[in-house]
Amino acid sequence: MQFSKYHALGNDYIVLNPSDFPGWEAPTETQIRAICHRNFGVGSDGILWGPLPTTSEAACGLRIFNPDGSEAEKSGNGLRIFSRYLHDHGLVRTRRFRIHTLGGIVESEIIEDGRLVSVDMGHVSFDSERIPVAGPRREVINETIATGGVTFRFCAATIGNPHCVIPVPDATAELARTHGPAIETDPRFPRKTNVQFMTIVNRSAIRIEIWERGAGYTLASGSSSSACAAVAHKLGLVDRSVSVRMPGGIIEVEIGDDYAIRMTGPVARVAEGRIDAELFGEVL
Questions:
Q1: d(CA 217, CA 198)
Q2: Domains of the chain from N-terminus onward
Q3: What's the Cα-to-Cα distance from 203 to each of 91, 148, 200, 243, 250, rounded to whole Å?
Q4: Which residues of the chain have a pLDDT value below 70?
């Protein structure tokens, strides 16, 4: 069973092409956990299952799975990785093409032979019904959330998947690891949420630390970068071009009209290999 592995700023994904897995409609939760396990499996932050048949509006479809087996609507780094995979394997013939995800259709552009990829991620919304966030319909801006004896102010947003953005004077990995799990599963987020702690560097740069829904502490995230840049702009703290700094590196975000997001960042190929069927008998 063939696999390809890539990383985008340390956020690594395994691409599984359904044509290499006859009889699989999609990997099961048990199979996903086994493959993604850092000690007993191949090891990754998630699985990209595609290309899949789709409508004429997109070149192909993609399903995105977190390492705990849950399914994500959208992943910016995952989309950049999958775009390079399609390019590397000759599955697309143009530099620009569309991909269908659960979080909507996005358009990718291959740059520098795939070492750099831009994705038009769609529009960020702060609407509580679209994110979703419990309570009356509203824009979720500067609300409070308490966890571990600490009260934070947060903004919520969606770019096809939910985000809780918390501005702080100094975003640290400890903040994300300590408070991320409780905020991810807070009852006000019925589909759980990605969590970002964000520090404003200047009008054109922010720094974030990420707790990713279904994956945990993460070195980088494209959708988190998009949501945080949009929130910072909504709060009047940054301009429309934002460098998002993370432990894994930097993603460039352009904010267009109605919070349309174009995200650009690097992708690196790691490995091509075979998954042995024995794996699924060894790891629960």
A1: 14
A2: 2-115+267-282 (3.10.310.10), 143-263 (3.10.310.10)
A3: 39, 31, 8, 10, 16
A4: 282-284
C-alpha span between 157 and 108 (Å, rounded): 22
Residue 280's pLDDT is what? Answer: 85
Looking at residue 282, its pLDDT comes to 56
pLDDT (tens digit, 9 = 90+) per residue, 129-176? 999 999 999 999 999 999 999 999 999 999 999 999 999 999 999 999
Q: How many residues does the chain have?
A: 284
